[in-house]
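Retry 2 of 3 after timeout on previous attempt. Resubmitting C-alpha cells to design endpoint.
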C-alpha cells in the first residue's frame, strides 16, 4: 500500500477531534487562568522537568503533551496531528490510534528526559562544589567562580563590567553566588512542553504506511512522504547531536517520538501480515 486517497474516510475522526479540543482548551487556560499576579504556573506543575529539578513529577511524562509555548507551536502541532493523525485513526480505529499517540508521546519524553538529566550532571556537580567553596570566600571562591562561569557560559566579565565592580570588591561574593544560583535554577528548572514527540511518531507512521503519497509543503510544493520523513528526521537528528547552545527546541523528544513511532508501526504491520491467509 503506497497511495492513500481519503475519499470515504472521516475528515475529523473522534480521537483527533478530542485531542484538538483538549489541547486548545489547555492552551487557553495557560494564557488566561494564571491569576492576576501569575501565582499559578501550568508549566511548573504539568510541563516536563529534569530529574534533578524539584519541579519534576511523574505525571509530567503525560501532561507535557497538552501544553504549548506559543500560538505558532500549538498551531503547527495540531495541524500535523489533523493532517496525518486523521489518516491513521481512520486506518487503525480510535483505540489503537490513541494508544499509539500516547506511547509515542511518552517514549519521546523518556528519551528526552534521560538525555537532559544526563547532560545536567556536570552542572549539578559543579554547582554543589562551588556552593561549598563559597562558604570559604576569598581567592579560592573567586577562582572557582571563574572556572564555573566559563564552563557553563555565564558572562561573568560582562556582568562585572555592567556593574562597575571586580572580583576583589569587598562583600561581592554573596551577590555573585546569588547570581550564579539564579542562572543554575533557571537551567535546572527549564520546562519541556508540547505534543511534538507524539506528532513526530504520527508523521513517521504515515511515512512508513504511505511512503509515496504526495504532501504539499505550504500547500504548493509537492514532495513524497518518504522523502519528507527522511529529510525531517535527519534535520532533527543532526541538531540533536550538535546540541547547539541557545537551541530551545527539544530535538531528542522529536527523534524519540519518531523512533518509537517507527518501531510500533513496523511491528504492528508485521504482526498483521502474519494473520493474513
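Retry 2 succeeded. Sequence:
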Amino acid at each position: 500500500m503506497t497511495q492513500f486517497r481519503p475519499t470515504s474516510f472521516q475528515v475529523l475522526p473522534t480521537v483527533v477531534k478530542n485531542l484538538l479540543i483538549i489541547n486548545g482548551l489547555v492552551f487557553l487556560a495557560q494564557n488566561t487562568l494564571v491569576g492576576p499576579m501569575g501565582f499559578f504556573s501550568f508549566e511548573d506543575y504539568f510541563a516536563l522537568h529534569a530529574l534533578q529539578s524539584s519541579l519534576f513529577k511523574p505525571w509530567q511524562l503525560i501532561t507535557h503533551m497538552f501544553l504549548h509555548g506559543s500560538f505558532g507551536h500549538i498551531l503547527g502541532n495540531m495541524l500535523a496531528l489533523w493532517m496525518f493523525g486523521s489518516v491513521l485513526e481512520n486506518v487503525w480505529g480510535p483505540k489503537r490510534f490513541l494508544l499509539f499517540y500516547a506511547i509515542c508521546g511518552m517514549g519521546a519524553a523518556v528519551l528526552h528526559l534521560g538525555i537532559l538529566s544526563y547532560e545536567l550532571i556536570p552542572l549539578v556537580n559543579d554547582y554543589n562544589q562551588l556552593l561549598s567553596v563559597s562558604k570559604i570566600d576569598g581567592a579560592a571562591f573567586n577562582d572557582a567562580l571563574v572556572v564555573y562561569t566559563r564552563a557553563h557560559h555565564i558572562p561573568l566579565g560582562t556582568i562585572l563590567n555592567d556593574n562597575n565592580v571586580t572580583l576583589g570588591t569587598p562583600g561581592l561574593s554573596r551577590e555573585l553566588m546569588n547570581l550564579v544560583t539564579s542562572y543554575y535554577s533557571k537551567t535546572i528548572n527549564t520546562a519541556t512542553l508540547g505534543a511534538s514527540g507524539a506528532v513526530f511518531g504520527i508523521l513517521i507512521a504515515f511515512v512508513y504506511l504511505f511512503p509515496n503519497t504526495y504532501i504539499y509543503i505550504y500547500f504548493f510544493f509537492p514532495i513524497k512522504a518518504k522523502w519528507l520523513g527522511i529529510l525531517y528526521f535527519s534535520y532533527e537528528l543532526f541538531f540533536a547531536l550538535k546540541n547547539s547552545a541557545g537551541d530551545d527546541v527539544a530535538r531528542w523528544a522529536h527523534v524519540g517520538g519518531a523512533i518509537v513511532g517507527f518501531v510500533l508501526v513496523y511491528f504492528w504491520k508485521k504482526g498483521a501480515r502474519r494473520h493474513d491467509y
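Attempt log closed. The chain is about 65% helix and 5% strand.
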